[in-house]
Amino acid sequence: MATLIALSVLAIITMLIGAWHKYKWIVPVLVTGMAVALALNINDWNTYRHYYNEMMFVDNYAVAFNTILIVMAMLVVLIAGHYFRNVVKPLDDVYILMIFSLIGGTLMTSFSNLSMLFIGIETLSISMYVLAGSKKFDNLAKEASMKYFLMGSFASGFLLFGIALLYGSAGSFNLEAIGLYATSHANDLPKMFYAGMLLTLIGLVFKVAAVPFHFWVPDVYQGAPTVITSFMATVVKVAGVAAIFRLFNHSFMAIQPFWSTTVVILSAATIILANVTALYQRTFKRLLAYSGIAHTGYLLMALVASNATSMGAVLLYLAAYSLSTYAAFVVLMLVKDFIYDDKMEHYQGLARRNPLIAITLAISMLSLTGIPPLAGFMGKFALFSSTLESGHLYLVIIAILGSAISLAFYLKPVISMFFKEGGQIVIGLNPWLKVFLVLLCLAQFALGLIPGMITQLL
Amino acid sequence: MILIVILIVTFLGAVLSLVSPQPGRAKWIALATSILSFLLSVFIAATPSLYNSGFKYILLGEMGITFSFGLDGISLLLLLLTTFLSPLIVLSAFRKTYRRPHVFYALILLMELALLGVFTARDGLMFYISWELALIPIYFICGLWGSTDKIKITFKFFVYTLLGSLFMLVALIMLYLATPAPHSFSFDALYAVSMSNEMQTWVFAAFFLAFAIKIPVFPFHTWQPDTYDIAPYQGSMLLAGIMLKMGIYGILRLLIPLCPDALAEWGWLAILLSVTGIVYASIIAIKQDNLKKMVAYASIAHVGLITAGVLTLNIQGLQGGTLQMISHGINVVGLFAMIEMLHVRLKSKNISDMGGIATKAPIMAAFFMIIILGTVALPLTNGFVGEFLLLLGLFEYKAWVAVIAGLTIIFTAIYLLWMNQRVMFGKPGDNLAEFKDLSTREILILSPLVIMIFWIGIYPSTFLHIAEPALLQLIGR
User: Is residue A201 situated within a structural domain?
Assistant: First the structure.
């Protein structure tokens, strides 16, 4: 709760800084403010308190996912300072929208009422619609923003309709009440309830981009400014996944046999389609977009599993995924700074001229593939064991095939950088960036070797 | 505890060579650390009280994952093989002018570390992690310093072997989940799992796929000849000399103790595939002009015999397989080292470009002959003891299998001796004008190998005794 207040105050302060034209203060103030919010968030650990007439429930689940959200947002703001360093016009609005979006994200991890879920999603999404188009003289950005907005509002419609149907049958917006209703009427649930659940599911998987609700992702990721894309791929994804699991864990466990098949199909289709499509991408940004979709597929496996270990697995997986994806986006930003284009050819021979950048990208690609001892491996390992524990061997086999395919496209930039000659760009790095990249590499090893530091948050 | 010292020494060696201020110094760091690891492992081997030593450090208590490494006879032999070959592999690269040598030597040491991890892990997850970790350095060694078409070939190699390992991961997780409630990955806990017949079959299939791709067994071998061919010689030595032993070691360490029933039911298929591979690869080897590819196919044939012998599950087959792993490692590294020496001198690795070398370089011809005779399995050389035991084991299993597998000796003699004749004898070509005999460094590389060829050939008990208790325990199960 204190987290939410701190972040809201931070947003207002940032607006005031913008009003006073002290633009240089924005990034330091934001990072400090988010660090405070993070501390307050950790402080809520093991407290379990309801707020606002049970609108929100801050439990360890919320604390754990908020931690990832805030850390990722902090990282994005840090790199945004570098990304925007040559931009003359004031950018306070961009930063403020990011904070608002983050606020929406924290609501999505801690809601205990469907209306709060909707508010969280809209707060997050509307900020993102604007941010996607924040490069306003770029046609691709405009297209991205428009597409995102249209598709997003469509999904919101589904979600709202679903919520209405759920309310109609259960008579409450409260998650626990809905869960109780589903348990006590397990045999005579009205069709409306099932329909409502499915519509809610559709609305939510749209946000995390599961096949077949993924069509917006590649275009939006490509059109949006890269720093915003990295925000979408990490913060938005984490918040969306957290919301799905929170809703299903609290409300729909009684009818798991009903939705289980649906989620299995979503998950399998996402893994297969996204990994195969990613093979054919020529630009790095679209490759990362499909990689993001594929990882949604793996994460949905945990929803199918839904046992004692699956939340820990999801948390670990999301942390690993966000960290590695973020590292990849940082490299993309650095390269794009020089070449204004993200075709894979531009990475040729980068290892010789900028070994640090090449190694960072290679580590994050291998981590996303799930090669030990990197973070991604531990995430995949936890996820696979959790899914196997529930006896879904066939789904794990699909995931394995997907992982083997994914190696093929994750290796593309690595091969370009290390094994091919050519290209001219030499990227100048200031010492801070060098330290930052080294830390990113080390963090991916650390998370793989000591995964307990994340899973113990739950 | 000495074991962890070896691992740490190797790791530090890799880090030091990577950051060494002068790239030229990296090779000395690599040589020194690999020799140090070898001396330490000889010390372990010479001190019987250390045989079953190990160490354990709880990594993730609640998930039952422990950082645990240890030794028994089989591990010890492979530890010796790895640490024995690594300095020679490093030394064989000394004269080469690689780009970024410090990275090259660091990757070799990293590879050694991962291999040592595989051979000494006492925890399923540590085994898997080391297994996968071994892929990364060799991928970069082949990709960065390989020859033509390396991108496609290394790519195939990486994806192919990763797919196999992922199946192994699933099997390991299934076993892990079958252990009693706070689950554990330690080998002892995994061995204690009792599986239903159906599950055992699946676990067997998954493990066999992973190991068969790594070894490689007949229909899964397609990545191997090309990869050996394009890899720099040190990469080929690592791949053929040590890395493919990972697969056979996996069979000994996991497949045999974990899936006895499935092995009884499906073992014939695995043996059949291995034996098919022997004949198939031998015939292809005869036709090769490219020496590296010839050795690659010969390697498929020889490890096919090892795999078949080990899977018979009798003590002769197991003893022979374990010993032959060592012998094959020594012989194949010797062959690749000699091919590299020829390649450097003649700028070609094709038999058709060679001939009459014996007249110009008698010492080289002598070493070449000895290593080839070891591979051909002449009595008193290392190949003989191992292959004899393997064939004995196969004969006890089914006589006709032994007959087919025995063809390998004839085939090996055909292609290797014929090759020797074409390369070393015959009319000297024009390209031999500047041909020099072996240098001191090259003799230093080959002598230890030749000593081992005779040692194992004349007095194999030294090595047979190390592995025997562990192997007896393996069948005793």
Answer: no
